[in-house]
Design goal:
The chain has 565 residues and is of the alpha/beta class. Helices cover 53% and strands 8% of the residues. The strands form 2 sheets. It has a 5-stranded mixed β-sheet with strand order 1-5-3-4-2, sandwiched between helices. A 4-stranded mixed β-sheet has the order 7-6-8-9. It is extended, with a radius of gyration of 33 Å. The N and C termini lie far apart (98 Å). It comes from Candidatus Bacteroides pullicola.
């Protein structure tokens, strides 16, 4: 259901419902509600009521309702001691309810980074969005969306630190680049409350450098054959008389990276040879770009897989006799192993059956130091038959992706080489002028959309809409765009800085009377305070003058007083 349709339905279904008949929903990405903020909202509700109705839908086979959006208003109303609340009753599916809940909450200003990440992830998993459409829907850059999505890979302990503002977004962005094993070690050794050598408060660049130094060269974390590493002079175990525990660390990063990339490429090729129906994909958050580049150069298609993908089950480890104290314990472990293997084989057979039937797609995900088998529900045609994509369509999709890769590589290389180009002598052209306006449009205010021929109901400007605007610029449009850009930059005005001076100059030109009223109000307050300060200064000066006029005792009198004492 489109937003406008929902709003139309909403206007016809506003009713007053008992708070006792309303239940929160698991769809809401917001899990934390600030008590102080809720208390303030509760006070407002006591005085003015709920200004905007919440959204609910009926719970099947009951007289109760489930919240679709507005849980914060519901909680504050309960806190305020209200009995009822204005609500919009919506007749929508689970999918529509979840999308509305997520979308409505993402547009709030107080959503935490973790809540935002989980919300974006839910929308991706719905299959109705990709990163690009999310960026357009919420007026964010694609890099912003991808960075937020990375937060879903944080372990709970670190996610909680980010949730409670004990860890900055920039630091969390560095940590989430690594797998759970490294995250757990980083947390236990450097982020847990009260640990010696805490990294809390460090800059993101410092944390990144520390992780790179302390955690990424440990040979134990890599799966390639480390036979040669055992005697390598760059292995820290061979750099001193006393060996470190484990495999040691590699002090020659270039060699470590090459061995790891070669291992990943070899394993990926082996998987493709053994299972031709498997699709190679990159891990969006913990991948290995060099391995991906090498595989693409070899002619393999590597997809950018989005959304959650379950992994193949882990094969149970067979028990060894030397791991147990008694024969009885060993035999029990063998029985448990047999049951685990039966369950493992059954699960693998079920996955393979679904893959053969075209119900799911199998993927080999390229991670930082391993290849992981995973799967995802099969993509469907745009048609009505609902059948899995055909081999021809799969090849066409591969060809399309190859073309995308060619463009991506062209853009990446051009971004680097453009820095070397000599652009100082050529005349600034009309096409470049339009490019400037394209970027300035990022700060266009919604109230000016109609002035530029854009529907006022459009939530954000897409790139296509921006290109349409710059292709038909008028003098008025240019003025509006430039001034909105200036107004956006005036937000950086502080006290007496240069931006503040420019802001006041701009205001004198465009709203002199309003500025005069503003200035007059604050000048009046200042004059009163200034007058009081002057009065206090005058009193202090008078007192100092009186003290100066009092006769001071002579030196002989002081000596006489000291002798008498």
């Amino acid at each position: 259901m489109e937003t406008k349709d929902i709003q139309t339905v909403a206007e016809k279904n506003i009713v007053s419902l008992a708070l006792a008949d309303i239940r929160p929903s698991g769809f809401n990405p917001r899990k934390h509600f600030d008590e102080e903020s809720l208390a303030e909202l509760a006070d407002s509700i006591r005085q003015q009521g709920v200004l905007q109705p919440i959204g609910v839908r009926p719970i099947v086979d009951t007289n109760l309702f489930e919240i679709v959006f507005g849980e914060r208003r519901y909680r504050a109303s309960v806190m305020a001691g209200m009995d009822e609340i204005q609500a919009v009753v919506l007749d929508i599916t689970d999918e529509a309810a979840e999308e509305m809940a997520v979308t409505e909450n993402l547009q709030r200003k107080d959503v935490t980074p973790i809540e935002e990440a989980r919300a974006y992830q839910k929308l991706l998993e719905s299959g109705r969005y990709d990163v690009q459409s999310l960026a357009v829907q919420f007026g964010k850059s694609e890099d912003y969306i991808r960075t937020r999505l990375k937060f879903t890979t944080l372990i709970p302990e670190i996610a909680e630190l980010l949730e409670t503002d004990e860890l900055s977004v920039s630091v969390a962005s560095e940590i989430c680049r690594y797998g759970e094993d490294i995250q757990h070690e980083v947390y236990d050794r450097h982020l847990k409350e009260g640990v010696f050598g805490s990294w809390r408060g460090l800059k993101a660049s410092e944390v990144a450098r520390n992780i790179e130094r302390d955690f990424t060269t440990n040979l134990h974390r890599y799966l390639f054959d480390k036979t040669l590493c055992a005697t390598c002079p760059f292995n820290t175990n061979n750099m001193s008389l006393f060996h470190e525990e484990g495999c040691g660390n590699c002090a020659k990063r270039s060699c470590l990276e090459e061995k790891n990339v070669s291992f990943l490429v070899g394993k990926a090729v082996q998987v493709m040879e053994q299972q031709p129906n498997v699709i190679l994909c990159r891990d969006a958050f913990n991948g290995n770009d060099k391995a991906v580049e090498r595989l693409v150069g070899m002619g393999y298609l590597v997809e950018n897989l989005q959304g959650y993908c379950p992994t193949y089950p882990n094969r149970p480890e067979e028990p060894q006799t030397d791991e147990y104290d008694t024969q009885e314990e060993y035999e029990q472990a063998c029985r448990d192993y047999g049951q685990d293997m039966a369950a493992y084989n059954e699960r693998c057979e079920e996955i393979n059956r679904k893959a053969d039937a075209g119900e799911i797609m199998l993927y080999a995900r390229i991670e930082r130091s391993d290849i992981t088998l995973c799967y995802k529900k099969a993509e469907r045609n745009d048609g009505m038959d609902g059948q899995p994509i055909s081999p021809i369509e799969k090849l066409e999709k591969q060809d399309k992706r190859n073309k995308e890769i060619a463009l991506e590589k062209t853009v990446e290389d051009t971004k680097k080489r453009i820095l070397e180009a000599d652009i100082t002598e050529t005349k600034f052209g009309a096409d470049e002028d339009k490019m400037i306006y394209f970027f300035l449009l990022a700060d266009l205010r919604k109230e000016h959309y109609q002035t530029l021929g854009i529907d006022a109901e459009v939530p954000y400007l897409t790139d296509e809409e921006k290109m349409g605007i710059v292709a038909n610029l008028t003098a008025k449009a240019k003025a509006v765009i430039r001034r909105d850009f200036l107004i956006a930059k005036f937000k950086e005005a502080r006290g007496g800085n240069a931006v503040a001076s420019l802001l006041l100059d701009f205001a004198r030109k465009h709203m002199p009377e309003t500025l005069a009223d503003i200035k007059s109000g604050y000048d009046e307050v200042y004059e009163k305070r200034h007058q009081r300060i002057e009065e206090k200064k005058a009193a202090l000066l008078a007192k100092e003058a009186e003290q100066a006029e009092e006769p001071q005792p002579s030196e002989e009198q002081q000596q006489s007083e000291e002798t008498a004492a």
